[in-house]
Design brief:
single chain, alpha+beta, Nuclear Transport Factor 2, Chain: A, 3 domains, 7 helices
Length: about 425
C-alpha cells in the first residue's frame, strides 16, 4: 500500500509540472561517456641498432618460450634478417602479460602483423602472420617553382615551395632527353608539376606518380604528359604525342653541377701545365654524386686507368661509346660485359687520377672519333610517337592533366593544337 501511495503522489506532481508549461520543464539529464576499462598494454618504439627479431621480442617482454615459434611463423611471409634499425614496432600484451600482437613497419607501404590465436592440443602456440598494406590516401596535387638568384637549381626552387628532393628529381627525369639541367637552367625559368601525394593518417608519406610537367623558358615551353601504352608501361610524351625519350640523356649527372670545362682541341691542362686536347666535358660536382649511363649499352671497361683514375666505358648501338672518368667509386655489379640501362648508376663523382678537384670528365666517341658531348644530343633521332590507335586516348589524358595543372597552380592556359597524324604515326 505504501508503494501505491508513493506512485500516486509522483503522478500528481508530474501532472502539476506538465500544467505549469515549458518554463517549468525539468532540466535534461546530462549524458556522460562510458569509460571502458583497459584490457591490454601496448609497448611502442623503434628498432635499435644491431637488433634481431628475437632480441627485439625478448627485450620487450614477450614470453621467451614463444619467441622461437613466433620467429618461425614469421619466416613464411617475411625474412626476419631484414629487420632494420629505426623502423617502428609495437607489442600488445594482455594486462596479465600474455602476448597478443606484434607489428613492425617494413616500409612506407606495408607492415608485418603477428597475432596470437591459440594453442594446439599439444600446447604449441599458433599465430596468424601477414604483411599488411597501410591504409593510405592518394591526392592529386600540383606545385610551381621558379629558378632565381637565391634558388638557382630545381632542388632549391622546389625546396622553397616546401617540397622534397624526390619531386624535382622526377621532373628532371621527364625532360632528361631534352634539357641538360647542369647548364641550361636560367633565372626566370618556371617548372610546374602535376603529381600524386601519398598520405597515411593525414600525414605525407611519399610522392606517387607524376602525371604532367611543364617547363617554361624564355625561348621555349616543354610539356611532358605521362601516358601508359598498351604494354602498361608509363612513357613521357610532348603535347603532340612524341616521345621525350632520346637514345642519349643530355647529361650523365643530376642537375645541380655546372660545366667547368668544355670540349677543346687545345686547352691549358690544370695539372700538367701544357696545352693539350680536352676531348670531353668536365662537370663540377660533389664527391659521391651519382653518375648515370646516358643510354642503354654494355660495359667494356671498369677499373683504374692511370691519369683518368677510375674509369667506366660503355658501348652503345650504332658505333657509340661513352666514358666516365675520375670516379671515386664504381657501382656494384659494373664490370666488363654487364648490360646497363639508360639512367642506371655506373659510379660516383670523385677526383681520382690527374684531377685538381672533384668533377666528372664525360666523353663520347662514335666509330672511334671523339665528339663534343654537348652537341651529340642534337644528332639523336626523336623517340617513337604514340601509336595511331592510341592518339585519341592520349589526347584525353593530356587535356585532363593540363586542365588540372592549370586549376591547381593558376598557370597560364596551354592550348595544345590538335594532334596531326604524321608519316611516323600514320597507319
Amino acid at each position: 500500500m505504501t508503494r501505491i501511495l508513493r506512485l500516486s503522489s509522483w503522478l500528481v506532481a508530474l501532472s502539476a509540472v506538465a500544467c505549469a508549461g515549458p518554463a517549468s520543464a525539468p532540466p535534461a539529464l546530462e549524458r556522460r561517456d562510458v569509460v571502458l576499462p583497459r584490457d591490454t598494454d601496448t609497448i611502442e618504439g623503434v628498432v635499435p641498432r644491431a637488433a634481431t627479431l628475437e632480441t627485439l621480442l625478448r627485450q620487450n617482454q614477450v614470453d621467451p618460450s614463444l619467441v622461437p615459434s613466433l620467429t618461425t611463423a614469421v619466416r613464411e611471409v617475411f625474412n626476419p634478417r631484414h629487420i632494420q634499425a629505426n623502423r617502428a614496432f609495437r607489442v600488445v600484451r594482455s594486462l596479465d602479460g600474455l602476448f597478443r600482437e606484434f607489428q613492425y613497419q617494413i616500409d612506407t607501404d606495408n607492415f608485418l602483423r603477428v597475432v596470437f590465436r591459440d594453442r594446439t592440443p599439444k600446447g604449441e602456440p599458433e599465430f596468424e602472420v601477414a604483411v599488411v598494406p597501410y591504409p593510405r590516401e592518394i591526392v592529386v596535387d600540383a606545385v610551381t617553382a621558379e629558378i632565381s638568384r637565391e634558388r638557382p637549381s630545381l632542388i632549391a626552387a622546389f625546396g622553397a615551395a616546401g617540397e622534397g628532393q624526390q619531386l624535382p628529381l622526377e621532373l628532371a627525369n621527364v625532360f632528361s632527353g631534352e634539357v641538360d639541367f647542369n647548364s641550361e637552367l636560367q633565372r626566370g625559368d618556371v617548372a610546374s608539376v602535376l603529381f600524386e601525394r601519398v598520405r597515411r593518417d593525414g600525414e605525407f608519406v611519399k610522392y606517387g606518380e607524376l602525371q604532367a610537367a611543364v617547363l617554361q623558358q624564355d625561348d621555349r615551353q616543354l610539356v611532358g604528359i605521362g601516358f601508359r601504352g598498351s604494354d602498361g608501361k608509363l612513357g613521357w610524351y610532348d603535347e603532340q604525342g612524341r616521345s621525350l625519350k632520346r637514345q642519349f640523356l643530355k647529361s650523365p649527372l643530376p642537375f645541380d653541377p655546372r660545366v667547368t670545362s668544355g670540349f677543346s682541341t687545345r686547352r691549358l691542362h690544370p695539372v700538367f701545365g701544357n696545352y693539350r686536347a680536352h676531348l670531353g666535358v668536365d662537370y663540377r660536382a660533389a664527391v659521391g654524386t651519382p653518375v648515370l649511363s646516358v643510354a642503354d649499352g654494355t660495359v667494356t671497361f671498369a677499373a683504374w686507368s692511370g691519369n683518368s683514375g677510375r674509369l667506366v666505358k660503355v658501348r652503345h648501338p650504332g658505333g657509340w661509346e661513352t666514358m666516365y672518368l675520375h670516379l671515386s667509386s664504381i657501382a656494384t655489379g659494373i664490370r666488363p660485359g654487364t648490360r646497363v640501362r639508360q639512367g642506371q648508376l655506373l659510379g660516383r663523382v670523385g677526383m681520382s687520377g690527374a684531377a685538381t678537384g672533384p668533377h666528372l670528365d664525360f666523353r663520347v666517341t662514335r666509330n672511334g672519333k671523339y665528339l663534343n658531348p654537348l652537341q651529340v644530343h642534337r644528332q639523336m633521332p626523336p623517340g617513337e610517337p604514340i601509336a595511331p590507335e592510341q592518339l585519341e586516348a592520349f589526347q584525353q589524358v593530356r587535356d585532363s592533366a593540363l586542365q588540372k595543372l592549370r586549376g591547381l597552380t593558376g598557370a597560364p592556359a596551354l592550348q595544345p593544337s590538335p594532334i596531326a597524324t604524321t608519316a611516323a604515326n600514320r597507319p
